[in-house]
Amino acid sequence: LSWIRHRDIHILTVGGYTYTSDQRFQANHHMETDDWTLQIKWAQKRDAGIYECQISTQPVMSYFVNLNVVVPSAQILGGPDLHVDKGSTINLTCSIRFSPEPPAYIFWYHHEDVISYDSNRGGVSVITEKGDVTTSFLLIQHADISDSGKYSCSPSNADVASVRVHVLN
Q1: Which of 52, 49, 25 is nearest to 39 (CA)?
Q2: What is the CATH number of the domain that holds 56?
Q3: Which segments constitute the Ig-like domain (predicted)?
Q4: Per-residue pLDDT of the chain (169 residues; tens, 9 = 90+)
Q5: What are phi and psi of 86, to 5 degrees?
Q6: Cα dist. 136→66, 77, 94, 160 in Å?
Q7: Which residues contact 41 (CB under 8 A, 6 or more apart)?
Q8: What is the pTM of this model?
Q9: What are the phi and psi torsion angles at 47 (to 5°)?
């Protein structure tokens, strides 16, 4: 039994032997069921595509599998620009989707600096709701002109999402 990646017609495994230098790939044989499984550790977007399980019978039998790799993504709702009035509350909502598990942490940034919830500024809080879709709300009370600028949501398991906030007089 062989596993072949169609993107580059690369033979990945034959029986229990691996024919790729990428150590994330491994064929597993389950003796009790006589099933063969191709394991790809730490799947990446580039691993998506057609894989062929080929059995060396006469004639050759093949089974094709289409692998979709879903990458967690973060998005700040209402972007890329948000306008708020001076003195109002800035409410930023970061939504993390397509994640097999909720992020271990989510950092918020203003410009390039981590937002500290116990800073002298005060009035800054974060509420995070974890689930199939994890949502983090950044609340900044009494918005001032100095609160304008780039805000970023940086979850542990997805790329950073950013928005530009404009505090208007």
Answers
A1: 25
A2: 2.60.40.10
A3: 1-68, 72-164
A4: 999 999 999 999 999 899 999 999 999 999 999 899 999 998 988 999 999 999 999 999 999 999 999 889 999 999 899 999 999 999 999 999 999 889 999 999 999 999 987 778 889 999 999 999 999 999 999 999 999 999 999 999 999 999 999 999 8
A5: -55, 135
A6: 33, 11, 5, 13
A7: 23, 24, 26
A8: 0.71
A9: -80, -10
Domain that holds residue 39: 2-67
Q: What is the rounded CA–CA span in Å between residue 51 and residue 49?
A: 7
> Do 140 and 106 fall into the same domain?
yes
Q: How many CB atoms lie within 10 A of CB 52?
A: 17
- Residue whose entry in the numeric block shows the structure tokens 């937002």: 115
Q: In the numeric block, which tokens belong to residue 63? A: 């089974």
